[in-house]
Automatic annotation (TrEMBL):
Name this protein carries in UniProt: Family with sequence similarity 160 member B1
Ranges of Basic and acidic residues composition bias in the record: 181-191, 426-439
Family: Belongs to the FHIP family.
Domain FHF complex subunit HOOK-interacting protein C-terminal positions: 556-648
Length: 691
């Protein structure tokens, strides 16, 4: 009968909007009069379609009227307390699945209608009641709809903060109302919801629903207006919205359904991938929920929530896992930490996570003080672990950290050690000796950067906005520098390009592996870093020597020490380890900080005795390489074969002896080309924006 009426309605001519709206609402209430089987799911009825039509009519009505004007359909919804009735039916979940439909209707109504609805008592009262229903049952099938509904309410409160007054409920008044009206809860109430049907025709189902609605109204006299809320005692207020949100944080199923930005999975994939995948996704869903909650919260509340996550999760659970000695345990916990670092986006939670990992120290680091923060010390040591897998995973962790928008990461790991520039010799010579091969013309593989197509036609709009932060040694002079300042760029770039001797180079024999391939990537990455670092209080130029404490002993810092040590063993380490070490160093080299640039990318700095820079470390590696290449027969053909195999240009065949060294030589050559590209891009950015 019900479906037949709906079919006939579809064939009928269109009705005025209000008649149409009333028809759909009466069709829903008519279902409860005629249907005796209340076990059939709501999806087997036309209730979802009628609710959707009602939403469409309300949206159309608002679109056709002047802004802020309430139409007859909306007046009907408010006057007949339709939301109250829907809440009651949703609470009873009759027919099964009705609660999901009601939550969805509320969410879409609040989201689609532009005029303010929550100030209406017949809107905010049922909305508040529906808020109380959310989170009552963990892992409920309505979890997805509950979170979407609560997020919509939160968005409305954020848009108009005064509306929060409607969601403060006084427990004392509620208890008094329950005592006074307990015996009369089911009596006729003048504010009872109007279903649009003759009350005498209502069967027991609708009658009980109306009685329940009246009971809810009788127990909530303090909800009528914001003014009634302000008369309550502060400590007796009940924040139902917050309570429901917090309850849902304990529901892994509902969170994984709607919040987690992970790939969709099924049980078969779950079993095939690895044991515990579902639990992992549930955890990451919870973390993502906390992260989003902290991001949207008021600043003080966000700080408190983030601190609680640090103490109750990171310190209590993660730290013992990261400090253990089991290699499998270390690898698993570090992999999870990697995922956490990549996922966290809220400023407050990111800061607490960083403080947990690295500590809050920003003063100069000393060799004796590297164990001051045990977890930081352990993580850095893991970058040079006996297990290559642990080393790679931890190096990847630090690479992700270096890309997060947090100044403290760089200050704590690197910059605090370079502040006084005491890596340079106390007394600077008036003139520095230039390399012999640079005095007698350009080497055969030197590149002409002035005509590089990537930078020759850059418009001012496309140039980087980092004006005067770069400074190089030796200082420009009229004798060696052209007016455009690019001769010095040639010297520095070619210093890196010429580090690896010709007999150890193989890229020139393979197409598409030249130095220019790194320029575009370096330009893009440097532009991104400049965007991140622009708001930080970083030096625009190196600290003047007269203000530096050059007599204090220089310590490169625990982090750079491990990286340099690893770089010094590049010829004896696995290929994947070398790729990760050089990747972290290139990320550091890209940063637009004067001291970091000087220390990592200036080949001409006059190092203090006992100090080393990235360039000096590579020079030592090259010296070792020259001694070892002469001991390997057919070194050049083997080197080319290994390069082609790494590029997939040559199938795997017979094993090649000294393959670790050969792969190390290839990584070294590519890394030098990458550093040259970074140096050029940074110098070009500086000169192109200078007056």
């Amino acid at each position: 009968m019900f479906s037949k009426i709906y079919w006939l309605y579809n064939l009928a001519p269109s009705l005025p909007l209000q008649e149409d709206f009333v028809y759909h609402w009466k069709a829903i209430t008519h279902y409860y009069i005629e249907t005796s089987d209340d076990k059939a799911p709501v999806t087997d009825t036309n209730i979802p379609s009628h609710l959707e039509q009602m939403l469409n009519i309300l949206t159309q009505e608002e679109r056709e009227r002047e802004s802020g004007e309430t139409g007859p359909c909306m007046e009907y919804l408010l006057h007949h307390k339709i939301l109250e009735t829907l809440y009651t039916l949703g609470k009873a979940d009759c027919p099964p699945g009705m609660k999901q439909q009601v939550l969805s209707f509320y969410t879409k109504l609040l989201g689609r209608i532009r005029q303010p609805l929550l100030p209406h008592i017949n809107v905010h009262r049922p909305v508040q009641k529906l808020v109380r229903l959310c989170g009552e049952v963990l892992a409920a099938p309505t979890g997805n709809e509950e979170i979407q509904f609560l997020c919509t309410v939160c968005a409305k409160l954020k848009q108009d903060p005064y509306l929060v007054n409607f969601f403060l409920e006084n427990k004392n008044k509620k208890l008094e109302a329950a005592k006074d009206g307990g015996a009369d809860l089911v009596k006729k109430d003048p504010s009872s919801p109007d279903t649009g049907q003759n009350q005498k025709q209502n069967p027991s189902l609708v009658t009980s629903a109306l009685k329940e609605a009246a009971a809810c109204q009788a127990t909530s006299p303090g909800e009528a207006s914001p003014s009634s809320v302000h008369t309550t005692l502060p400590n007796s207020d009940n924040y139902n919205l917050v309570s429901s949100l917090l309850n849902l944080t304990k529901s892994p199923v509902s969170l994984s359904l709607c919040i987690c930005r992970l790939d969709v999975y099924n049980l078969k994939e779950d079993a095939v991938a690895f044991a515990g995948k579902r639990a992992l996704i549930s955890f990451l869903s919870w973390l993502d929920y906390c992260d989003q909650l902290i991001k949207e919260a008021q600043k003080t509340a966000a700080a408190v929530l983030a601190r609680a996550v640090r103490e109750r999760f990171f310190v209590a659970i993660m730290e013992p896992q990261l400090m253990q000695t089991s290699e499998v345990g270390i690898l698993t916990s570090t992999a999870l930490l990697n995922r956490i670092i990549r996922q966290v986006t809220s400023e407050a939670l990111l800061q607490e996570t960083i403080y947990f990992l690295l500590g809050e120290e920003t003063g100069p680091e000393t060799p004796a003080g590297i164990t001051q923060h045990p977890l930081r010390h352990r993580l850095i040591e893991h970058c040079d672990h006996l297990s290559d897998e642990i080393s790679i995973m931890t190096l990847r962790l630090f690479e992700h950290l270096l890309q997060k928008p947090c100044q403290h990461i760089l200050q704590n790991l690197v910059l605090r050690c370079l502040e006084e520039r005491n890596y340079m010799e106390n007394k600077q010579p008036e003139e520095r000796e230039e390399r012999e091969h640079m005095e007698n013309g350009q080497p055969h593989d030197a590149v002409d950067l002035e005509e590089d197509p990537l930078f020759s036609d850059l418009s001012p709009d496309n140039r980087l906005s980092s004006p005067d932060w770069l400074s190089c040694s030796p200082p420009p002079s009229t004798e060696h520098t052209k007016p455009d300042g690019k001769t010095e760029v040639h010297k520095i770039v070619n210093s890196f390009l010429c580090l690896v001797p010709d007999e150890a180079k193989s890229s020139y024999q393979v197409e598409g592996t030249g130095y220019d391939t790194y320029l575009r990537d370096a330009h893009r990455q440097f532009r991104d870093y400049c965007g991140v670092c622009q708001r930080w209080d970083w030096r625009s130029s190196p600290k003047p020597f007269e203000k530096c404490n050059l007599d204090s002993p220089f310590f490169e810092g625990h982090f750079l020490k491990v990286l340099f040590d690893r770089m010094g063993r590049i010829l004896d380490q696995p290929y994947d380890v070398n790729l990760q070490v050089t990747s972290v160093l290139s990320k550091l080299s890209l940063l637009p900080h004067a001291h970091l640039h000087e220390y990592l990318l200036d080949p001409y700095i006059n190092l203090a005795p006992g100090c080393r820079s990235l360039f000096s470390v590579i020079v030592r590696v090259v010296g070792d390489l020259m001694l070892r290449t002469h001991r390997i027969p057919d070194f050049t053909p083997k080197l080319l074969l290994v390069r082609k195999r790494l590029l997939g240009l040559e199938p795997e065949g017979m094993s090649v002896d000294h393959v670790t060294l050969l792969e190390g030589v290839i990584v070294l050559e590519e890394f030098c080309k990458e550093l040259a590209a970074i140096a050029f891009v940074k110098f070009h950015a500086s000169t192109s924006t200078s007056p």
